[in-house]
Amino acid sequence: xxxxxxxxxxxxxxxxxxxxxxxxxxxxxxxxxxxxxxxxxxxxxxxxxxxxxxxxxxxxxxxxxxxxxxxxxxxxxxxxxxxxxxxxxxxxxxxxxxxxxxxxxxxxxxxxxxxxxxxxxxxxxxxxxxxxxxxxxxxxxxxxxxxxxxxxxxxxxxxxxxxxxxxxxxxxxxxxxxxxxxxxxxxxxxxxxxxxxxxxxxxxxxxxxxxxxxxxxxxxxxxxxxxxxxxxxx
Length: 234
Known about the structure:
Blueprint: E1 13-17, E2 39-43, H1 49-54, H2 61-74, E3 78-81, H3 90-97, E4 101-102, H4 108-115, E5 121-126, H5 134-139, E6 148-150, H6 156-162, H7 170-185, E7 190-195, H8 204-211, E8 215-216, H9 218-229
Parallel strand pairs: 1-2, 1-3, 3-4, 5-6, 5-7, 7-8
């Protein structure tokens, strides 16, 4: 007996998107081909990357909740977002939406840290180390000091994302990732890397090859999230 109650079926994960125009290459959360399963999207009007990263996303929480509620009504069983800085709205979203919420890739840090041998620690690559505060980390369940390396300072990657450019120099972004990952590794005892920014996932394999340590992104997080919402049938 088939059961109803939803409008759309087969896409358990709903993604709250910032309102952007920069290119979303494969691996980016905003490219649906990044996932081996269907996802649903809703754009949160007025939520630019610069406003969320460099401002206070809590000022937009009502807009995020409204978009999340629409995704839940459409049939999503879990909600995520397209920016790691939205850890600050995790509590508000899960309280309002009534379904599991994975607001930020940063939420992987405590889990990954628990996997590492003694003496090793998780490092974080972010679009802006200056803007990533202890409040963002605490909201993602991260306690204590965490090595962080940012890509601010006029680099190709941060310019494209924070200025919402319509073009993306992918080769230059790869070089930005290489330089930032090397700087992060030089902080010492880095046993794994978590990519805060959801636009960094396209470069995860290259960062892994260069550093030799595991790399976790929003894509790895959503794949884990989906695995609980719809477990494989054996």
